[in-house]
Design goal:
7-stranded mixed β-sheet, alpha/beta, Enolase-like, domain 1, 2 domains, single chain, 4-stranded antiparallel β-sheet, TIM Barrel, 13 strands
C-alpha cells in the first residue's frame, strides 16, 4: 500500500464575479467566497476540496486564516490517517471553523480514492450510481413566478423542487396554494425551506398545509438550536420535518437529537460538519435509528461532489440538492455536476471526487494564497 504522505498543502481564496441570489427576502446579495485546498502527496497525487462562505461586504478571509493554523499538522502525515487526523484537528480547547477541518478531510478522501483508482462513492458504500435531484430555487417575486419556475424545471426533466420563500406564513401559503392548483396533480416531490424564520405556531399552521398537499418535507421551520420546538413539531406533523443542518452538526450533538426524536430526518452537509468522516458517521447513526439523512449540496462544485459521493455511497437519503443557478457554483470546474434529462445526477467516473479543476484559473483569481 502506498504511504500517501502529504508533501505540500496550499490554500487559494477566490471571490467570483457572479455571487448568486439570496435565499431569504431580507438578505442582501451575498459576497460569496470560494476557499480551495490542494494537497499533494510524495507520489504526486493531488487531492482537493472547496467550500463557500457568505459575507455581507468583503470576501471571507477567516477560513483561510483558520487553515493557516491547521496546515502545519499535515506534511509528513498519510492520507490513510483520516480518522486520526480528524480527531487530532477536532476543536477541544479553542473553537474554530468546522469548514476548515472539512476541507482537509475531503481532500484526504479524494487522495485515498485516487490511490485506489476508484470514484469516491465506491469507497463509501457504493449503494447506487445515480440519484434523483431536486431543483433548489432562489426567492422569487410572486406566487405566479413560482408556478412558472416549476414548469421551467419540469421541462428540464426535474420531478422534485424545493422552494426558498418569503418566510411570511400568509404569503408563503398563497405560494403553496397557487403551486398546488397548477401542479398538484403532476406527481412532483415538493419541499419548503423557510430558513429558520417561523415560530412554533406558524410552523404548525404551514406544516398542516404541507401535509394536506403531500409535501416531501418541511425544512428549517424553526431555529436549528430549538430542539424542544423541533421535537414537538415532528411529533405533531405528519410531513417530515428537517432542521437547516448548519448549527447542530457535531456527531455527538446529532446523536443526542436523534435519541430524543427531535427531527423526522437528519439534515447535514459534509462541508459544515467537519468533512466526509463525520458526515458518514452521522448517516450511519441515523440509519441505525431508522431515520433518513438528507444532505445539503448547496455550494461550489467540489462541495457538491463531496456530498454527492456520500449520497451515492449510502442508502438512507433520497435527493441531491441542485442549486438552480448552476454557474454561480461552478467556478474553475471543467466538468461540473448537473442533473441529466431525467432529473438524476450520475456518479462521476474519474477516480476520487471526479471533478476536473482549472488550477491556473484559480491561481489567476486568488485574492489570498497560503502554502506549507
Amino acid at each position: 500500500m502506498s504511504e500517501l504522505m502529504i508533501e505540500r498543502a496550499e490554500v487559494f481564496v477566490c471571490a467570483p464575479e457572479r455571487p448568486g441570489s439570496t435565499w431569504t427576502p431580507e438578505q442582501p446579495e451575498p459576497c460569496t467566497t470560494h476557499t480551495f485546498l490542494r494537497l499533494t502527496t510524495q507520489e504526486g497525487l493531488v487531492g482537493c476540496a472547496a467550500t463557500d462562505s457568505y459575507t455581507s461586504h468583503y470576501p471571507d478571509a477567516v477560513l483561510a486564516e483558520t487553515l493557516r493554523d491547521l496546515l502545519p499538522e499535515l506534511p509528513g502525515r498519510s492520507a490513510h490517517q483520516r480518522q486520526a487526523l480528524w480527531q487530532l484537528l477536532r476543536p477541544k480547547a479553542y473553537a474554530r471553523s468546522a469548514q476548515a477541518q472539512a476541507l482537509i478531510d475531503v481532500a484526504l478522501w479524494d487522495i485515498a480514492a485516487q490511490a485506489a483508482g476508484k470514484p469516491l462513492y465506491q469507497l463509501l458504500g457504493a449503494h447506487r450510481s445515480s440519484i434523483q435531484a431536486y431543483a433548489s430555487t432562489p426567492v422569487l417575486a410572486s406566487p405566479e413566478a413560482y408556478v412558472d419556475y416549476v414548469e421551467q424545471w419540469m421541462e428540464q426533466g426535474f420531478r422534485a423542487l424545493k422552494f426558498h420563500c418569503w418566510c411570511d406564513p400568509r404569503r408563503d401559503r398563497l405560494l403553496l396554494e397557487q403551486v398546488q392548483r397548477a401542479h398538484g396533480d403532476k406527481g412532483l416531490a415538493l419541499m419548503l425551506d423557510v430558513e429558520q424564520r417561523y415560530d412554533l405556531e406558524q410552523a404548525l399552521e404551514i406544516g398542516q398545509v404541507l401535509e394536506t398537499f403531500g409535501y416531501a418535507w418541511f425544512e428549517a421551520p424553526l431555529d436549528d438550536y430549538d430542539l424542544a420546538g423541533y421535537r414537538e413539531l415532528s411529533h405533531r406533523l405528519q410531513v417530515p420535518v428537517l432542521a437547516a443542518g448548519n448549527a447542530i452538526t457535531d456527531p455527538l450533538l446529532v446523536d443526542y437529537a436523534l435519541q430524543r426524536q427531535c427531527w423526522s430526518r437528519v439534515r447535514v452537509d459534509a462541508m459544515t460538519c467537519g468533512g466526509i468522516t463525520p458526515a458518514l458517521a452521522i448517516m450511519r447513526n441515523a440509519a441505525a435509528h431508522g431515520v433518513l439523512a438528507e444532505l445539503q449540496s448547496w455550494g461550489h462544485s467540489l462541495a457538491q461532489a463531496a456530498n454527492l459521493h456520500l449520497m451515492l455511497g449510502q442508502a438512507n437519503c433520497t435527493y441531491f440538492e441542485q442549486a438552480c443557478e448552476y454557474e454561480a457554483f461552478e467556478f474553475a470546474t471543467l466538468n461540473p455536476l448537473r442533473a441529466d434529462a431525467t432529473g438524476h445526477v450520475q456518479a462521476p467516473q474519474r477516480p476520487g471526487l471526479g471533478l476536473e479543476i482549472d488550477w491556473p484559473e484559480i491561481e489567476r483569481h486568488a485574492l489570498q494564497r497560503l502554502s506549507v
